[in-house]
Amino acid sequence: MDDLLNPLIQGDRRALSRAITLIESTRSDHRDRAVSLLATLPDRQALRIGLSGTPGVGKSTFIEAFGTMLTEAGLRVAVLAVDPSSTRSGGSILGDKTRMETLSRNPMAFIRPTPSSAQLGGVARRTREAIRLCEAAGYDVVLIETVGVGQSETLVAEMCDLFVLLLAPAGGDELQGVKRGIMEMADLILVNKADGDLLSTARRTVADYAGALRLLRKRPQDPEGFPKALPVSAATQDGLPNAWAEMQALTDWRRKNGHFDENRAQQARHWFMAELRAGLLARLDTPDARARLDQLGTAVARGDAAPAEAARQMLDWLTSTAAK
Amino acid sequence: MDDLLNPLIQGDRRALSRAITLIESTRSDHRDRAVSLLATLPDRQALRIGLSGTPGVGKSTFIEAFGTMLTEAGLRVAVLAVDPSSTRSGGSILGDKTRMETLSRNPMAFIRPTPSSAQLGGVARRTREAIRLCEAAGYDVVLIETVGVGQSETLVAEMCDLFVLLLAPAGGDELQGVKRGIMEMADLILVNKADGDLLSTARRTVADYAGALRLLRKRPQDPEGFPKALPVSAATQDGLPNAWAEMQALTDWRRKNGHFDENRAQQARHWFMAELRAGLLARLDTPDARARLDQLGTAVARGDAAPAEAARQMLDWLTSTAAK
Q1: Which of A43, A275, A322 sits opposite B307 (nearest CB)?
Q2: Spans of chain B, pLDDT less than 50
Q3: What CA–CA distance (Å, rounded) separates A121 from A99?
Q4: Staple A186 to which of A165, B18, B65, B256, CB 3.0 to 4.6 Å?
C-alpha cells in the first residue's frame, strides 16, 4: 500500500498536494506509482463543477465568494484549474494564490495552482486524476476552473457533473460572442457583477441569455427550466445561495433519474480510451523507438521508402521489441 | 510483383481504377496487397494541385474547362476528390461523373468519384495513396478537389504542391466569410465567373482579395507577388491560361529553391507518422481486442476499475498477444 494513501484518505492536505505532484510527474517510475495509487482509492464522490469564463469576468472573486459560502455550510471545497494555454504562455491561472486570499487560508478549502508547463493531453489526464485524489481526500465539491480558450471548455465539460458559465453583464451584440457550442455545454449561466450600477444591465443580460438558452434544445436528462441563466454578485454575494440551490436541484434530479451515474460511467469509459490511446502512442517515445523512427522518417523523406511500408516496418519492429 | 503494377505503369485506366479500389478496401488482405503495391511504385511525379471552393462557385465547370485546357496542351490530368462530409451525407461530390461530361470522356483524363462512405482518417490515407497511383500511372497533373467544409482544406493542403482557392465575385462583406486560415493556405485565389454582367464585380473582388493577401505575411519560399488573386471564367475560359502560367511559375521557383522537394519530404514524413499512429490504434480493432476492451470498459464504467489501471491492463494484454 502506498505511504500516501492513508494520510490522503484522512484528508491531510500535504498528502493530497504530494499525491497531485506525483500524478503530474512524467517520470515512468512516478507514473507507475501514480497508476497504482489511483487504483486503490476509495470510492468517494464529490460534486464536480466545471466553471468557465473569459478573463475579466471576475472568476477568482466568484470562486473566493462561492467557495467560502460552501465552507460556511460545512462543505470541503477543492479548486483545480485547467489551463492548456499555460503550455505556451508559461503562465498559470491559479499560480498566484493571493488571487483567492481568503479561500487559500481556509482549512476547509484546497487550492491547487496549475503547473507552469504541460502538454494538452497531459492537462486532461492530470486534472481528471487530481479530481479523483480530491474526492478520495474527502472533498465535497471540486471546482474545476478554466479560461475560455480553445478546447479547454470541452475538456472540462468531459470531466465534471455540472458545467457553469460565468459571464459579465453585456449588450446584445456581445451576447453573440459566446459560442453556441459553449452555450450548449452550460447547465447554468451566471451573470456576474449584478450589483450597483450594473444591476439593471446584468438583469437584462440574464433575460437575453435565458432567451438564447430557450432556443437550444432541452436536454432529455434535465428538468423543466434548465439550462438556466441567473444573476449573481461575487462582490455582494447576492444570488450565490440561489445559484447553489439550483445546482443542487439539478444534481438531485439527475441522481434520481440515473443520469448522474450514467454520465460518470460514460466519462470513465472515455478516460479509459484516452489513456489507452496515449499508452499506445507512448511506445513511440522510447530512445530506441525514436532512433528507429528517425531512420525510417529520413528514408521516407528521401523517397527511399513509401510511408505505408515504413509504417509497417516500424509496427513490426515494435512488436518484436515488445516480445523480448 | 503485383499483377496490377505493369498495366498501371503503362497508364491503363482500368488498372488504375482497380488499384484505387484496392487501396480503398478495409479488408486486411487487400490492405497488405495495397501496402506492397505502393512500395514498388516507380518514382514519377505529377504536379499535385489542391482546389477548394464552396458549393456554387462553379468548381466542376472550372475543373472541366481547366482540365480540358491542360489535356489540349498534351498533359494527362487526374481528378480526385476529398469529401469528409460524405461520411455523414452518404453523398459524393464527384459521384455524378456527368458533372464533368467532356473531361470524363477525354482519354487524357481520369476522374475518380469519392466513395460514398469513409472515415475521416481513411479519407486522407486513401486520397494520398490514390495520388501516388495516379503519378505512377503517368499523369502529369493531379487535381484534388475539396468542398470547403471543416478540416478538408487543411487535409488537402497537406497533400498537394499548390493550393488554389476558387471563389465567386462578391461584395466586401462576403470577403470576411473566407476564413483567415484558409486564405493563408492559398497559393492562388481564383475569382471565377469573371464574365458578362459579373466581370466588373469579379475584378473588384480580385482587388479586394489581393489587398487581403498583401496583409498576410509573405512565405519565405515564394517569389514576390505570391500568393496572388486572379480573375478567371470557367464559362468563357478567359484567364485560365494565365492561371496555369502562374501555377507553373510558382512551381518552377519552388523547384529551383529546393522548397518543392522539401515540402514533399515533410509531407511524406507527416504521412508516415499518420500511418504509424493509425496502425498502432488498429491493434484495438481486432475481435479479441474488442472483446477485451468491452470487458475492461464495462468494469471502468461500473467503477470497478480505475481508467489508468484498466488502460495498463489492456496494454499489457496487447503486448502479450503480440508476442504469441
Answers
A1: A275
A2: 86-96, 120
A3: 27
A4: A165
